[in-house]
Write a structure and sequence with these properties.
Elements: E1 4-7, E2 10-16, E3 22-24, H1 27-71
Antiparallel strand pairs: 1-2, 2-3
Length: about 70
């Protein structure tokens, strides 16, 4: 079990006496952190999907150009 001591003028921070680590004990701050991580994950997923779609469009465009080039 961790032994935490309060940090002066910081209501949400505690110091672990064994490791010296500073710990945020605010559940609101933790929930906000989790929400930010989820937004970042969704944005990364969206960007990855857009990159895949762009690659597909480029491939189709190359195919059309190749077809038109071979027709002439």
């Amino acid at each position: 079990m961790r032994s935490l001591t309060r940090i002066k003028n910081e209501p949400n921070l505690r110091k672990d006496v064994n490791s010296g680590a500073v710990v945020n004990v605010s559940s609101d701050d933790y929930n906000k952190y989790i929400q930010r991580k989820e937004i970042i994950r969704k944005n990364n997923d969206r960007l990855e999907n857009l990159e895949k779609e762009l690659t597909e469009v480029k491939d189709l465009l190359r195919s059309v150009v190749d077809t038109l080039t071979n027709v002439n």
